[in-house]
Amino acid sequence: MxxxxxxxxxxxxxxxxxxxxxxxxxxxxxxxxxxxQEYYDAxxxxxxxxxxxxxxxxxxxxxxxxAEQGYLLMETGHPNExxxxxxASLEIExxxxxxxxxxxxxxxxxxxxxxxxDAAKIAIEMKPDEEEEFINMxxxxxGMYRDQEALVYYEEALEINPESTYAxxxxxxxxxxxxxxxxxxxxxxxxxxxxxxxxxxxxxxxYAHDDLGNLDEVLKYSEQMIRxxxxxxxxxxxxxxxxxxxxxxxxLVAYDQLIDQYPQDATAYYWKSRVLIQxxxxxxxxxxxxxxxxxxxxxxxxxxxxxxxxxxxxxxxFQNIIIGE
Length: 325
What we know:
InterPro entries: TPR-like_helical_dom_sf (IPR011990), TPR_rpt (IPR019734), Ycf3/AcsC/BcsC/TPR_MFPF (IPR051685). It comes from Ornithinibacillus caprae. It holds the Pfam family TPR_16. The chain has 20 helices and no strands. The relative contact order is 0.07. The protein is mostly helical. The longest helix is centred in the C-terminal third of the chain and has 15 residues, at about 215-230. Helix 9 (about 130-145) packs antiparallel against helix 10 (about 145-160), helix 12 (about 180-195) packs antiparallel against helix 13 (about 200-210) and helix 15 runs antiparallel to helix 16.
């Protein structure tokens, strides 16, 4: 049951990579690359997009501008429009590896993985010495749950650049989903040395240690995410591990900390009531359970099906909580 407690925490992590803007700008002929590069250096992608679209009004058939527009639409969160711009660029000039790479990026974002594989394959054929092409191929394959094949491409990217962060995180996650937590940790730990603030990667480290039964490590990383990022799910994970270790007082403290930080979270009260009932603090457990159900009536169904409350199904106080009297 406690293991199930942790299963509701799911991190959906998509690591996307586009072509370096500089590669596309090297092809430019009809606009100021210096102006655009300044925007890129400052990560001012909205302003860069405005500039590119102004230039496109004067040069609507400039394939480099169209490719830049596609890249910037991806950076600003518009994959459908980005794909249209990239395709328009490729219709004018199809010998543009950067555009194919960004096409793969857009297709991955749109979960059109088979098409992304085709675009990434062309990009690799055109420029087999760039890590981005191999990473996007790995990402597309991973999106289709073909993680074993994806590993080949992440390894290729790491041959080109041993410190490629996208390849390291991709490799680590692929190993995790292949049921290889120890190998996953090897890549994830290297990645976190380079990008220590990546919470999503920290979660996969937690998952891998949990699968290996390294609960002390799970607690350590959960506490790190609580301390550094006040991560709500990390409170739950920490508390559930403490329950598994039957460290009930510590689990209650964890839930109290969660409730203090997120007082509107009805589920936190529910899980606290479970700990109390397992400590035979029935009156307190029912009080907290009642509060959770007042906040979220759907938790009635949880309580009715929860094994820790099965012994109380005929208890009048429990029944009153469930039916709301």
